[in-house]
Amino acid sequence: MSACLALGSAAPAAWAQEAGSPPAQPPQPVAPPVATGILEVATDVAGAEVLLDDKPVGVTPLRLEAVPAGEHDLAVNLAGREPVRRRVTVQSGGTVRLELAPPALAPPPLAPVAAEAPPPGPSAEEAWREVALSVLNLPWAGLAVGVTFALLLTAAVMFTSTPADLPLFESAGIAIDDQQWRWTAVAALAGGVVTGSVALVLLVVRTTPVEKLVTAVRASTKGSEKQSPR
Q1: How far, CA to CA in Å, does 100 sit from each of 38, 39, 40, 86, 90?
Q2: pLDDT of residue 189 exceeding 90
Q3: Which of 54, 134, 183, 201 has the fewest Cβ atoms surrounding its Cβ within 10 A?
Q4: What pLDDT shows up at residue 9?
C-alpha cells in the first residue's frame, strides 16, 4: 500500500516537470559546402582592371580563390587597349588560368579637311600690266625684243621699197644700187631672226614673263567669254 502511494506521488511530479519544459526541436539540416574554384588572370601589361560578373574584383596580375563553380562573365579593361570579354567556366576544386593581350585601340578617323578654293586670278588689265613690267625687268630680253622689232621693220620697209622711194637717201647723196639694197634687206631680216631667237631664249629661261603672258591671255579669253551674249 505504501509503495503504491509513493509511485502515485512521483508521477504527478514528473508530469509537472515535463509540462514546464519546451518541446524538443528537430535537428536542423546542415547546408552542403559551396563548390568553388580558383581563377587566375594575367595580361601582357600589368594593371588592367578585372570585372567578374560586372563587379570589379581587382587588377592584373590577379588570383581569385573561392570563386563559385559555374559560368561567369569576365571583363578586362586596360587604358589604351580594346576591352576584352570572356565567358569562363570554373570547375569545383579546379583552377582556370587566363593570359590576355588586349589589342591596341584603333586611331580615331581623321576629320575631312575642306579644300580651300583657289584665289581668284588677276583681271586681264592687271595680267597684261604684269607682262609689261616683267619684260621691262629683264633689260637684256627687252633690248633683244626692241632690236628684233627694229630689224624686222627695216627688212619689211626695204623689201617693199627702193632707195629712190626714200627721200632721205637722195638728200644725203647716198647711192645704193638695187643689189646692195636687197642684200641689206636680207641682212636685216636675218638679224631680226637671230635677235628674236635670243629674245625667245631669254624669255623662256626667265619663265616669269612667259607665265604671266599665258595668264594674261587666259584672263582676256575669260573676259571675252563673259561679255559675249549667250
Answers
A1: 17, 13, 11, 10, 17
A2: no
A3: 54
A4: 47
CA distance 71 to 219: 78
CA distance linking residue 98 with residue 44, whole number of Å: 11
CA distances from 33 to 66, 67, 68, 180, 210 (A): 11, 13, 11, 134, 97
C-alpha grid cell, residue 13: 511530479
- Residues 125-129: what's their mean pLDDT? 69
19 touches 47 (CB < 8 A): no
Our measurement of the distance from residue 123's CA atom to the centroid of its chain's CA atoms, rounded to an integer in Å, reads 36
Strands (E), the chain: 36-43, 49-52, 55-59, 62-68, 70-77, 84-90, 95-100
Three-state SS at 198: helix
User: Per-residue pLDDT tens for 76-95?
Assistant: 998 888 899 999 999 988 89
Unique residue bearing C-alpha cell 637717201:
169
| pLDDT: which is higher, 192 or 1 | 192
pTM, to two decimals: 0.38
Separation of alpha carbons 74 and 52, rounded Å: 5
Look at the block and give the residue holding cell 621699197. 161
